[in-house]
Hints:
The protein has 487 residues and is mainly beta. Strands 11, 13, 18, 19, 20, 22, 23 and 25 form an 8-stranded antiparallel beta sheet that branches. The protein has a 7-stranded antiparallel beta sheet with strand order 17-16-15-14-21-12-24, with no helix packed on it. Bound molecules: calcium ion.
Amino acid sequence: MQGFDPCQHDSKCLPxxxxxxxxxxxxxxxxxxxxxxxxxxxxxxxxxxxxxDAVNGYTCVCKEGFSGLFCxxxxxxxxxxxxxCDQSECQNGAQCLVMAGEPVCRCLSGFTGNKCHKIVTVxxxxxDAYLELSSAKIRNSAHISLQVATDKDNGILLYKEDHDxxxxxxxxxxxxxxxxIANYPLTTVxxxxxxxxxxxxxxxxxxxxxxxxxxxxxxxxxxxxxxxRQPSVDHSTQLYIGGIPSAVVASGLRSGPDRSPQAFNGCIxxxxxxxxxxxxxxxxxxxxxxxxxxxxxxxxxxxACRQRGETGVSCECPPSRSGSLCDQKTAPSxxxxxxxxxxxxxxxxxxxxxxxxxxxxxxxxxxxxEPQACRGHQCRHGExxxxxxxxxxxxxQPGYTGLACATDVTCQGEAVRELLKRQQPMNxxxxxxxxxxxxxxxxxxGGLCCAPSKSRRRKVFFKCTDGSSFSEEIEITLECxxxxxxx
Length: 487
Ligand SMILES: [Ca+2]
């Protein structure tokens, strides 16, 4: 056999009494070690990675985004952050809040309705500005109330068109009613209270039993005595707010000695007819010179005032005040010292509770809620999250990796697959199959050692060069972990 070596791939040719035998280098098999063993037959590649065979080993070619020796690290997750507020239709600068899983619009002052679409406050600026409301709601007895804020002395607040016209006016800083009954002298009543201080004042007009009453700021009523006629309930006529169209002025109320009707300049808020709040922007007719909201900072009874462009001003109340104009006294809110983190504080008697935003739980909404799909999914050093496809997946803390975040990145272990050898005097014994194990060569932070953390005893069969064979139980490392270093 001199000069011819049938053993391939640098294997050693061992002469036997009869013939020879090739002693293969790790990774090769076959009688002449001619075959590169397919190491991918048993591989640990994960997440659909492709296994590429190599000599005595293999490589995992990861799918896009995955990483790690075995492609065990999923891509950094992009959580689909959806909120009920994504679909919210809050209008007029309103903020959307999630309350008990439902979107809730928090309206700026001057707006109301579930979408803050109703405009209940207007700022009249022009000299011909007015709003027109249908007066169909006025019956034999009527209660009309509104709030006004102005620093002007004169202007029309309300005008009821009729053959017996009725006007509610600002006159020299006071409020007055004028009722012009045809063929009778003008009748008038004035409020004691003056209202031209820039703050909101409540003005109420009561029509009842042949009498008209004026109430300002819940004070005592000023009554226009027994009237010759009940004020009209003619449904076809109009109710004007803040001014009167010039054509109506001409045909309307007689001019008294100290009367020249002019438009009201200032803010009008919460016009109610028989208790029903009127949407001032839904009015059938309005002219230029009217802005939604109130744009005068003087309306804030207390606190800071903030201009909000198209939506007017908003009042930021001190802790003791509430309401859109900070004109209501409040008990100190227990939410002032709220510890709610990802949630809303809900006052409860003298205490409060936290109403958690979606995905959070705990007394202070400080813990991420475990999604349903994560039940029973263990993440040793990380947090379970649900991927876009609904699968639970561990999101590891820095320094950890692996499917269950159990592997320290500095101590991942290196996969080895090789034939084991046992050298005996005059005899070499080799395991009959390649043994898959993990080596832990690296170190960990904090003075710890990277050492086998999971192992398994396995029976390995050896075949020796002299033809004999035996088996031996061997401890095989499966995973590495950081541990105290052996002394
Ligand atoms: Ca191979």
